[in-house]
Write a structure and sequence with these properties.
Layout (H helix, E strand, L loop, with lengths): L1 E4 L5 E7 L3 H11 L1 H8 L10 H14 L7 H5 L19 H13 L2 H16 L5 E11 L25 E10 L5 E7 L9 H12 L5 E3 L7 H9 L3 E5 L5 H11 L5 E7 L10 E6 L3 E2 L5 E7 H26 L10 H15 L5 E15 L11 E15 L1 H8 L4 E6 L6 H8 L2 H12 L12 H31 L19 H7 L4 E7 L2 E5 L5 H10 L8
Parallel strand pairs: 3-6, 6-7
Antiparallel strand pairs: 1-2, 2-15, 3-4, 4-5, 7-14, 8-9, 9-11, 10-11, 11-14, 12-13, 15-16
Amino acid sequence: MIIQQGLKKDAVHRKYVIGAHPVIQFFMDRLQINEIIGSYVKQDKRLKLGIEKTLSVLIHNILTTPLPMYEIADWLKPLDEETPALDSDESSLISDDRVGKALEGLYCGRHKDIFFRLALRAIKLFEIDCQQIHQDTTTVTFSGKYEGWHARQIMTYGTNKDHRPDLKQLVLGLSVTADGAVPLVHEIYDGNQTDDRLHPANHKRLRKLLQRSDFIYVADCKLATDDNLRKITACGGLFVSVIPRTWKEDKLFRDKVRKGKIQWIHLLSRPNNRKPGSKHDRYYMARGQYSTSNGYRLLWILSTQKAQQDAETRERNIARTLDALRELQTRLNRYNLKTRENIEKKITSILNQSKCGKFIDYKIYRDVHHEVRHTKAGRPKLNDPAWSVPKECFSISFQIDEERIEQESLTDGIFPLITNLKAHKPKEILEIYKYQPFLEKRHSQLKTYQQIAPVFLKKPQRVIAYLHMNVMALMVATLIERQLRIGMKRKSVKSIPIYPEEKPCKYPTAFDIVRLFKGIERYEVVQGENTCIFPAKLNKIQKQVLELLEVPVSLYQ
């Protein structure tokens, strides 16, 4: 609430910012987030405000205006206290220190049981289809010093997916449904944890949550190890994944493609959502039946979009490698590049780094020239004694092997799907796997809209708990998004003009809704004992969105 003096004497003008908070709170109340957190977190009797209320305010902040903790009190001042479910005297109790203590309480409490209960309630209340689960990990990168790290999850260096190997990180694993990409299970791992060892334990958590094992578990190539696939199959689980390029089946099949022994049949065509103006992406499948040595089903897929991407990536890598080799030419015969062995080692490093070793041929030439040296220092005279010293001089040449590039281009766009699904048709299996980018979009939302990093916290317990709260906020956002799209389908609404300049939006997100309701406010003018109330005004589009979400308009009155 913002209080201003009115133009008339003794008149007070009060402004209450509402925004999208009633929508967020409506879905939080349906999930019973406050009640569930309060059941599993130990309360501090010295605090006048419950931990669950403080954390619910943090969810509002993450989904609307993610700010550093020290700004949360200033952010809360202009808000209507009722929108984040606070009493009039409770908003003044919120501060960065109280939020930090609430995060510590969440970390020390039974936070795994909290998310277990939330997932169960979301599945039951919103009737989420859990037949298909997608799993992937992302890195949360931290800058700054974090000395004295005492959390169970170790922040350390690892393979950074943000391309920042110089910074420490934590790994966040996320499992979402194919029905709206709603997060059900998540886990925070050490920063150097590899994906191939995570899947058995993650699959076990999902079995415990869903009380079934016959759901389809979809993940990237790190799932495709003998141990992982055997454990999932042994408990009656189903999976779809991609085999790594290191498998012998991959090498044998690509050799057949280069020799022209593979026939392709059209499987599926669909538009490229990332590039709406481009041609349709066409998928083909290799004719015949294929399987691994363990008896799992193999589908060899050819994508025209991926073929184009592979060719462009190869061209970029070759161009970058040639630039590095040309730069190396200028540094030969100096410092540590004076011997053939060191020069060859440097060239090999450049080729391996860009993965272009088989496309570029090089030669190292050795030449010997003689240097004349004199016995006396200074400018030599005509008859001063001198002798000749032989000295090695190296040069390199390189060229692109066009024949090898042409052979490699025959395998562009090929990727193998491995599965133990027997009754599903190849087209259905491909469509199951192609939902994986929607999970990657959730990772993107965490790092863009929710700004999960940088983290302005020092204590490790608070850092881990803050990551947990971002996942909880993401669950609320995905449920809002899913409910809106279901409502659009039910009302046969193809698009809503909620983009800037009222441009149509076919697939609205929760963050589009936050932007749509950003300017909603209500006012009160108090003069003496008289109070004049000016309720919030909603336009036609905002009322339509509330109707599709099944959110009562009375929440804004």
